[in-house]
Amino acid sequence: MSCLTTSMNNVPARHRGKIVGLLDSAFSAGPALVALIYGVVFVNGHVHDEENQNLQGFYLFSAITFGVVNVLGVIILDVYMLEEPTVKQLKIQDSQDTSVTKNEPENSELEESIHNDRKDIRGLKMLKMFDFHFLLWPYIMCASLQLMYINNITTYLKSFHHEDKSTLFTVLNPISATFSKLLIGFISDALIDKIPRAGVILFTTCLQTVVLAVCVFYGDLYPVILLALFGVGIPNGATWCLTPTMTSEFFGMKYFGLNWGFMMVGTAFGGLIIQKIFGALYELEIGDPTVTDCYGLKCFRWSYAIAAVWSLCSSIFYLGLLERRLAFRKMKKQTQDEARKRKESVAWKHSISM
């Protein structure tokens, strides 16, 4: 959080998607590297008997690495103020927009959002905005179901008798998220003038919905397991790259840490709920309390179905968000066109009077 907030404050808004994508891709690359190190160094050939793996050594390695990284963060992280001309330009633009529109009635939230385009919003005011809820709830649902899938990837493999692929999949999953975050960050910045970021995340979420729906019926086939790995990993990258970026754009950077932290708390509860559902359904299919492992697609069919429904609901929310952002752009363009026409009219009258 500290690295993300500091870095976002240090770059212009037009590059925010790139910097968030870069930081989040590094965040995803870490688990891939650690999973690879664990599989190579600490498994010690005990693939099917986890109790004989060197877990104590892995914990010691993690503690040392964690301490070193945090010390580096304290030393390196700093805030660099934006150049003063940029700030002045923003103030001039704000004053121009206010002078043009101050006498016009505000008959909708979209019109109000034009006046608040660069304002910092938090608390109750943010909770009353539709854009916040169109962003919050799909984020909670997507992040929660993606966390459930990632946390249980080895359980899927064991149940489908592909346990020997555990290291491969635990490495490939964060790799897919790493590259998707990096690419989507750059792509969303490049297309921002034509396609809102909500359109990009809507596309990836629809892809995720289709993949999860396929898993309900064919999730035990190895090609489908591989498809699901990327079909969830890529949308996971889009979720964690574009959601904080849109949060900063909609509600400003001044309270970004507070707003983003509040949204992340929601994912913690959502992840807990869907994980509890996953565990209950898994144990229900076992039936025998003396047995701990379940085998076959029947163990996960309903959890796949619930995840697919959550993903579909998220797509609907993102569709609503996309519609609102397109309407916002249209109204903002109309406001700018009216301002330009008024300036041209004033200039013409001034030239006539002379």
Oligomerization state of this entry? Answer: single chain
CATH architecture descriptor text: Up-down Bundle
CATH topology, by name, is Growth Hormone, Chain: A
Shape call: globular
CA radius of gyration is 24 Å
Offer a few descriptive terms.
globular; 0% strand; Growth Hormone, Chain: A; 13 helices
Report on this model:
This protein has a single domain (2-77, 123-323), classed as Up-down Bundle (Growth Hormone, Chain: A), CATH 1.20.1250.20. Helices cover 78% and strands 0% of the residues. The protein has helices at 2-9, 16-42, 55-76, 84-101, 109-115, 123-127, 130-151, 153-159, 166-190, 197-218, 222-251, 256-286, 301-353. The protein is globular. Mean pLDDT is 83; it is low at 90-108 and 110-116.
Task: Give a short synopsis of this structure.
With 354 residues, the chain is an all-alpha fold. The protein is 78% helix and 0% strand.
